[in-house]
Amino acid sequence: MFSLHLTFSSFPLPNAGLIDGDLHFYHYSTDNANSDPVRVLEVHARTKYCRVAQFIKGGRALLTGSSDFSILATNVKTKSTIARLDNTHEAATNRRISLTESTIASGDDDGFTKVWDTKEYSCCNSFEAHEDYISDITFASDVMKLLATSADGTLSVCNL
């Protein structure tokens, strides 16, 4: 099980991804510190361990990455599949970051970083800069560079 901290409609939504692929999103009351969390969204979109999740399209869609090497886009309101890309990486995806309104980057356990067009749900860049898993990704928008760190102890700077 993992947990992330995502933002949806300007409210933080802590969540838990379960080993069966389900995602549960919760809202905590800021008025009463002793109140129990309320589950606001539950997505049953995966059959394998969900490793990373990110809202796109202004919070209307949720992208998830799994140990089955796929990326899945789910409509948050209807919980229906918008798009599913299989074999997006040759290893499990473990990091994802928004670059622009229509692009994201993902990193995998083999050290590959890929850039995705969320309008077309297609890969538009791929970088093989590391020998071990991607531990973090950030984006320098002023110079259009994607920076990634890896468990191999290196930092890559990729020109988009």
From TrEMBL:
WD repeats lie at residues 127-160. Pfam families: WD40. Keywords: Repeat, WD repeat. SUPFAM superfamilies: WD40 repeat-like. InterPro entries: WD40/YVTN_repeat-like_dom_sf, WD40_repeat_dom_sf, WD40_rpt, WDR55/POC1. It comes from the Eukaryota. Gene3D superfamilies: YVTN repeat-like/Quinoprotein amine dehydrogenase. Belongs to the WD repeat WDR55 family. This is Uncharacterized protein. It comes from Pisum sativum.
